[in-house]
Design goal:
The protein has 368 residues and is α/β, with parallel strands linked by helices. The chain contains 10 helices and 10 strands. The strands form 3 sheets. It has a 6-stranded mixed beta sheet with strand order 7-6-5-8-9-10, sandwiched between helices. The chain has a two-stranded antiparallel sheet with strand order 1-2.
């Protein structure tokens, strides 16, 4: 039988999950929470929850319907309340509580809120390798696996119990029966790895606000995809007229200017796949973000690279076009020409930060 305190804790956690779920769109679309990210958990601010309770007054102070006051006057409210005068208050105000949720819990909430299907990995996810993990202790084994601390403790315990231990001459000599050895267990692990390749246009027409939108959306994409794979590798590409592979920090902080050749990013993505991620062994996800302003003659090269090299090897290829006061926005129209022929080519127009929520659903709603 579960203890009452365990039931209360479980109920409180459900209340917290409900609060987060009801406000999930607000959390997803605001980048402030990204700064609260730990290795495996995220701190989320939620309104403090107070359990209602009765407070007893002084004995003899009157009962219901007794005392001064007029008909219809609210209980507990002074007639002078709200005039801006008086001394400093002594009552507590509303508070915000920081609660920690694991990324796994957040992924579940995102899946529920956005009605996302579970990702079905392709490739070698059904092939299992065997990995040995040392999880127990046994009395026999090779000397290389002898557990020194446990062996010593058993020998010390034996000598003390048999009055053979001399504190003035603390020599502990293990016998064969004292020896303990580490033991392993073979655990099958599936080959279900994913590679996420992010590409971002950093030409002169992309603003800091647009890059912030990309950063926020990429974070939540990571959370959902990591839920379905044992290992996730990320690669980052920035480009204007020329593409560069960069680290995560540079991807989110770089400032550049110049013209735009989207095909340079596709060449870089192909090179990364060829170098690091054989398509038979990896589930590959491409996420591209741009304002759609591309050098006109480059569009045909982009489509050729997509059709011949990238779309055939990707689980999912997503293009998010962020609205820009400077970019032409023409590129998405080129992609729409081939969109019907590739069900895992997903297009999304991100008009503002508030559109991040729906964009994530468009990208991940296929379950690829």
């Amino acid at each position: 039988m579960s203890r009452s305190i365990d039931q209360d804790l479980s109920r409180f956690k459900n209340i917290i999950r409900g609060q987060v779920r009801d406000n999930l769109k607000k959390y997803i679309t605001h980048s402030e929470m990204l700064g609260r990210k730990g290795r495996e958990t995220v701190s989320i601010p939620v309104p403090n929850l107070n359990v209602p309770h009765f407070r007893h007054g002084n004995k003899g102070s009157g009962g219901v319907g007794q005392g001064e006051g007029d008909v219809g006057q609210p209980i507990g409210k002074s007639p002078q309340e709200g005039d801006g005068q008086g001394q400093a208050g002594n009552e507590p105000g509303s508070h915000i509580r920081e609660v920690e949720l694991s990324l796994e819990e957040l992924a579940d909430l995102i899946g529920e809120a956005l009605e996302l299907p579970h990702i079905v990995p392709k490739g070698d996810d059904t092939i299992r390798s065997v990995k040995d993990r040392y999880t127990s202790i046994r009395q026999t084994g090779p000397d290389s696996l002898r557990h020194f601390r446990r062996t010593y403790k058993r020998a010390l315990r034996r000598q003390i119990s048999s009055n053979d231990y001399n504190p003035l001459n603390p020599v502990v000599i293990p016998m064969r029966e004292d020896e303990r050895f580490r033991s392993w267990k073979s655990i099958p692990e599936p080959h279900a790895n994913a590679a996420i390749i992010y590409m971002m246009d950093v030409s002169g027409s992309m603003t800091d606000d647009q890059k912030s939108i990309v950063r926020t959306e990429a974070f939540w994409i990571d959370v959902w995809i990591k839920k379905h794979y044992q290992g996730v590798e990320r690669r980052y590409i920035v480009h204007d007229a020329v593409a560069h592979e960069v680290d995560e920090e540079t991807f989110y902080s770089t400032r550049e200017s110049g013209g735009t050749r989207i095909s340079s990013a596709y060449h870089a993505m192909k090179a990364i796949i060829d170098r690091d991620f054989p398509p038979n062994d990896w589930n590959i996800y491409g996420f591209q973000f741009s304002d759609g302003d591309n050098w006109g003659e480059d569009n045909q090269d982009c489509l050729s690279l997509l059709l011949d090299n990238l779309l055939p090897v990707c689980n999912l290829f997503c293009y998010g076009q962020v609205d820009s006061p400077y970019g032409s926005g023409d590129y998405i129209r080129e992609l729409k020409k081939i969109n019907d022929d590739w069900e895992h080519l997903i297009l999304s127009e991100i008009e503002s930060r508030d559109a991040i929520y729906d964009s994530i659903k468009e990208f991940l709603g296929t379950g690829k």
